[in-house]
Design a protein that fits this description.
Elements (H helix, E strand, L loop, with lengths): L1 H18 L1 E2 L2 E2 L2 E7 L2 E4 L7 E2 L5 E2 L4 E4 L4 E6 L4 E4 L3 E11 L2 E17 L8 E5 L3 E5 L2 E7 L5 E7 L1 E6 L14 H4 L5 H6 L1 H5 L6 E4 L2 E5 L5 E5 L2 H4 L3 H16 L1
Parallel strand pairs: 11-12
Antiparallel strand pairs: 1-2, 3-6, 3-8, 4-5, 4-7, 7-10, 8-9, 9-11, 10-11, 11-14, 12-13, 13-16, 14-15, 15-18, 16-17, 18-19
Length: 253
């Protein structure tokens, strides 16, 4: 009887481990929930694979959501990322070494909501790149909108994030996809010359954005920071859905 009870207790553990390890290749996460038409583009391919519950995800995989679709990703670290409709999101790096966790991803377009557990080591990091900004956190709840005009809007709900302008030359990853909005500022010569001092200080340009604050980062590196109204913000269906999912997540943790 004891052996049977032990076996019953081990079965859930087995299937949890199996969802993160398929065909000997280590998964960095899985699709824990989705609605509508959600596709996975495996790393190094252009093939669209329909999302399924507990579908394993690997470094380099892209998530593409269509109209009226959403997706929740649970990383092997326990962190949760949710992708809104009409978005393209890439899991680039998820590395775990002892207590140190390093995660990097990119949002080419659309919206993501991140619920990140506290990172306790100096070597650990969680970064999201957009066409105009890099957002780094050490444990917080926040959202990132990569807008059609190549601006990036970041709203923080808990904790704080560090925001810097995106600069491929700083070694922050591959350049974002080319978009008309990114090219327009480069065609105006005078602003490029005037912003010279700003480029010099780009490595030290960092804004700490705290709870109930937002920052809008433009393609040319300028930004605007302000507070936002939580009650007004909560009227959004996207925000309401995430708050409910976060509540369920806290109950499970």
């Amino acid at each position: 009887m004891r052996n049977i009870l032990r076996l019953m207790l081990l079965i859930p553990v087995f299937f949890t481990l199996l969802s993160f390890n398929v065909s000997g290749k280590e998964a960095v996460g899985k699709i824990s929930f989705y609605v509508g038409r959600v596709f996975v583009i495996p790393a190094g391919t252009t093939e669209l694979a329909m999302a399924t519950f507990n579908k394993p995800l690997f470094a380099g995989d892209k998530i593409e959501t269509k109209k009226e679709s959403r997706c929740e990703i649970t990383l092997a670290t326990g962190d949760v990322i949710r992708v809104d409709a009409n978005s393209l999101f890439t899991l680039e790096i998820v590395e775990m070494s002892g207590k140190s966790v390093k995660t990097e991803s990119s949002l080419q377009q659309g919206k993501v909501w991140n619920n990140i557990k506290k990172i306790f080591t100096d070597e650990g990091s969680f970064k999201v790149k957009s066409p105009s900004a890099v957002i780094a956190v050490r444990g917080t709840i926040y959202r990132v909108d990569a807008n059609p005009d190549s601006t990036t809007d970041v709203k923080v709900y808990d904790g704080e994030v560090a925001v810097t302008p995106y600069s491929p030359g700083m070694g922050q990853g591959a350049a974002p996809p080319q978009q008309p909005g990114v090219q327009k500022p480069q065609q105006v010569a005078p602003p490029q010359q005037v912003s010279g001092p700003q480029e010099v200080s780009v490595e030290t340009w960092m804004e700490i954005v705290k709870a109930q604050q937002q920052i809008l980062v433009r393609p040319n590196g300028t930004f605007q920071r302000s507070e936002f109204n939580l009650e007004e913000d909560a009227k959004s269906d996207w925000v309401q859905w995430n708050l409910k999912r976060d509540q369920l997540l806290e109950e499970q943790r």
